[in-house]
Amino acid sequence: MSERREPVIENALAGFEATEFTHAGVTHPVYRAGTGPGVVVIHELPGLTPKVAAFARKLVDAGFTVAVPVLAGEPGKAPGVLYTLRSVVSVCISKEFTTWATNKTSPV
To answer: Of 1, 9, 33, 42, which residue has the fewest beta carbons closer than 10 angstroms?
Structure first.
């Protein structure tokens, strides 16, 4: 049986520059756009979905520089049940979750 794959919305991040941020040996993709005062948008699970990208774009349109680090999932991918479950599992076993659960600081 083949798995149904949720689509990546190709233009969800159009106009955002893909960069990276590394701290304490952990690297995360970061999408940036805009000029003006800075705002960091942190997504929830399952990740940087088209709706999160649309929210970030509204902030850019309002005159802000926006940075959206990708902490889980595939950037621009529409949410779905299987995709969300995979994202939850990846976060629960990640170094950042363990750090948070043990009340320590995180490189994120």
So the answer is: 1
